[in-house]
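TODO from last week: model DUF4123 domain-containing protein.
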Amino acid sequence: MANSILQELAQSMAARPSPQRTALADATTLQHLGDHLFAQVDPLLDGPPPSSLWVLISPQITDPLANARRRSEAVPLPIAPDIMRPEQRPYLLPLGGFGRDDTIDFTLDLAWAEATRHPDRETRGSSVCAWLVFPAEQARHVAHEMAMQTKHRWPGSHARYLRLWDPRVFELLTGLGDAEPLVRYAASTNGVWWLNRAGALQRYPAPAPTTPLADATWPETAKAMLRNSGTINAVLNALQDAEHNVVQPPLAAAILSLLERASSAWSLTNELDRIIYALYGVLISPQFDQDTNVREAMLAARAQGDSPIAALAGFDAAFWERHSHA
């Protein structure tokens, strides 16, 4: 893989102009998603107790359902206003019946465009986060439990909110293979569904306990994944935009390992440098910097006060092709 292509991939995470039109899934894809969600949700609605379908929206950048018919019924996650402005808080919105409420198709359509990073999408990030099933009278309880799940105080740090409502964040944890689920919703939630980066509907695999996981019991790998979630997702975004398969579960863990080595072996702190380092590790080889020529060039750059990443531009495409996954 050419060095120039790798650097272009890394820079693709930089700000882009907003698209001018909405990117919609084709009719077949949208029909399939709707049928799949209906097949899983419908058996849960009659109870006991009777339940309804809700969508979890994050309006931090833009509120896609600001004008929805039932917007006044939204239940926000009770996150303190000094942490997040009220208008930016995620919220749960009740949905109507399949075939009767076009908001369901709208949210599926928008979630697909966001998850697949369609080039013509109008939104950035993940505004449509998930669909949930629970009794309507439990809405405030579910919102409270979700807010408490995202609030953590790890030793030596202040209390902070983790963006566990964002599918690009909590799906990093679902691939860790832990027997005990890390993301826990209220016990009254009968199911949680989201779209992965391939635009495929996923159901959260674990039952929902009544209490959040104690902060002290979070595995170190999970903590590291969350601390680096922004950078990991920037790498995944660049790879996804280059049509690389990004839904294979070990990939996020491999990227985390590369980011940790970028810090420990090369003391890289610049965000773009770390992203480029991880991209080389994925697209060339996890040991790309162990090649004698590459390592000497990176060490020389560092000795001169430059970033070791700057040395990578000195190798041409033919060199990287020979070393690709060697």
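Done. The chain is about 40% helix and 10% strand.
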